[in-house]
Amino acid sequence: MASAKRKPRLAVWKFASCDGCQLTLLDCEDALVAVADAVEIAYFREATQSEVSGYYDLSLVDGSITTARDAERILDVRKRSRTLATIGACATAGGIQALRNFANVREYAAVVYARPDYIRTLATSTAIAHHVRVDYELRGCPIDKRQLLEVISAFLAGRRPVTPPHSVCIECKRKGNVCVMVAHGTPCLGPVTHTGCYALCPSYDRGCYGCYGPKETPNTPSLSRWFARLGVDNRNLQRVYRTFNANADEFREESERHGA
Amino acid sequence: MSPTDSTQHAVVTPEGLQALFEALKRRNYRVIGPILRDGAIIFDDIASVGDLPKGWTDEQDGGHYRLHRRDDGALFGYAVGPHSWKKFLLPATQRLWSAERTEHGVAITPEPRPSERFAFIGVRACDLNAIAIQDRVLIGGAQADLRYQSRRQGAFIVALNCGVAGGTCFCASMHTGPKASGGYDLVLTELVDDGEHRFVVGVGSEGGGTVLAELPHRSAASEEVAAAEAVVAHTLANMGRAMYSDDVHDLLLRNLDHPRWDEVAARCLTCGNCTLVCPTCFCTTVEESSDLDGSRTARSQRWDSCFTMDFSYIHGGSVRATARSRYRQWMTHKLATWWDQFGTTGCVGCGRCITWCPVGIDITEEVAAIRGSEPS
């Protein structure tokens, strides 16, 4: 609130991620000035050299847990945070790096690194909510800056953010988009995917890739049956659910129903 | 004059139709009609007859829509597409008011009443009925939606007697079409089969008669009126779907525990597409926004859907948590409880919910399945 004596302290934490979601904050451009006016950006390594100290009113957590050290560090972040919001598919579902959960991470390391014995990593990539209590999740790969500003504005006003969990389809229909699946036969994950991207891909004549993860009550088996009718084979039925949100429960379970 | 009085029918050519658009634009109407975009026939602004989807038709089935060329130059040779006129009368998003914190307290600014006047071209009988249903819901009760009312009362409607029944059309079953029976200013029937491309025009309002008088036209010959009747009769006989609707109210309400609801729930995606393409579905939600420094806020109205969890959320949780309960709520409201609530059907048989369901769930098939397997 404008009348608050002390500005709320904001921290942005990085775990295993590409940093894109954190950078969404810097990408807010003009609104970033307003954010800096409204909160004290007390810890944000992508933008300042500040050190961890004391407590934070709002922590934005980017990235997933892939190492034992990070599994410890998130406990400390939680203790320092009055409100903790996870931002992006890595933090909310484990990210693209959760593909390791379906494979042997040592084999991956052997392929990628010259000295795989230097690598200390967990067998899985997991969401922040697997480790600590999370107050709010903002979906997306990457998150949408309008939604990020909505979460911060709502936090400051003490209200619930408007980030509905329904399908992408509802956004498509509000925009007047022609359904790419019905009218063109293009497989689209929109009917099972959480809205938030303003129906970006279908607005450009592409099927939805599920960047925002499962919507509320997704019926993935029904959609998969329809994809099969559209000519998607079993291998690809597995792959469509194994992208940025591969470890989100409903997408993981659906991908495990299909395969080569 | 009576819209069905054959002696009063006129005939206009496609050039006369162009003159109609120009007459409407002179009256400061925003002329809206069918156009081709992104592989479908949708509604948007049209500047001239050249914008209409000449020589196109559509193939429709459950979860399936494709355009094809016709072998003639018909301007209206297709059924309804994904858009309905509620896109204009009840927009998907509209701001209701905004407020600003000032030295003297909070200053609230209501959004001004819409002043835009629409002329809709090619409104089919199903959609005329849908508009009448939304009128009943939104302005026929104790609390009128004043924005809807402004847009609605300013609208000029050029109806169309359908020359083509789509693959998912069932207006005949719902007694809503394919012949327009009122609620328009002018009504067109397109004749393309026998030589000259022309439209038989009927008048439905004084305003319609005034506009018609400005257009190049002549009186319809009795054979032309008969040909127009034959177009409608042919459409009536070729409905893509059928649903016996006379007893559907009681049928559904005595089968609320029918196992078919579980079966359809296994297919239903609860994505909400059926409700948003439905020309009678009117549900909206309101959303607040506020800025970062807490000095300004605004309230907006947005299309909502009974297929979301938030729709039935009351303190503690959603009343309709399962797909079964949400599909059943939607379908029984459309076909049964709408009668109890508003005294009309909530379904006009346009078939949009069938075509635009991503997995092709068919309301006529669901009714037939329940009818065919009622527990004794």
Order of helices and strands of chain B: EHEEEEHEEEHHEHEEHEHHHHEEEEHHH
- Radius of gyration from the alpha-carbon trace of chain B, in angstroms: 22 Å
Distance between the termini of chain A: 55 Å
In the sheet with the most strands of chain B, the strands line up as: 3-2-8-9-10-11-1-12
Q: What's the number of helices of chain A?
A: 12
CATH homology superfamily name of the largest domain in chain A: NADH:ubiquinone oxidoreductase-like, 20kDa subunit
- Computed structural class of chain B: alpha+beta
Helix content of chain B: 25-40%
Overall CATH class of the largest domain in chain A: Alpha Beta
Widest beta sheet: strand line-up of chain A: 2-1-3-4-5
Q: Kindly give the count of domains of chain B.
A: 2
**Biggest interface, which chains?**
A-B, 47 and 49 residues
Helix content of chain A: 25-40%
Provide the β-strand percentage band of chain A. Answer: 5-15%
CATH architecture label of the largest domain in chain A: 3-Layer(aba) Sandwich
* Overall tally of structural domains of chain A: 2
Offer a concise description of the structure.
Chain A has 260 residues and is α/β, with parallel strands linked by helices. Chain A has twelve helices and five strands.
Secondary-structure topology with pairs:
The complex is a heterodimer of chains A (260) and B (376).
Chain A (H helix, E strand, L loop, with lengths): L8 E6 L5 H7 L3 H9 L1 E5 L11 E7 L5 H13 E7 L1 H5 L11 H8 L23 E3 L6 H13 L10 H8 L4 H5 L15 H4 L16 H10 L4 H8 L7 H8 L4
Chain B lengths: L9 E3 L1 H13 L3 E8 L2 E6 L10 E6 L2 E6 L16 H4 L3 E10 L2 E6 L7 E7 H15 L6 H8 L2 E6 L9 H4 L11 E6 L6 E6 L2 H9 L3 E2 L2 H15 L11 H6 L6 H8 L5 H5 L6 E7 L5 E8 L9 E2 L2 E2 L4 H20 L9 H4 L7 H10 L4
Parallel strand pairs in B: 2-8, 8-9, 9-10
Antiparallel strand pairs in B: 1-11, 1-12, 2-3, 4-5, 6-7, 6-14, 10-11, 13-14, 15-16
Helix pairs in contact in B: 9-11
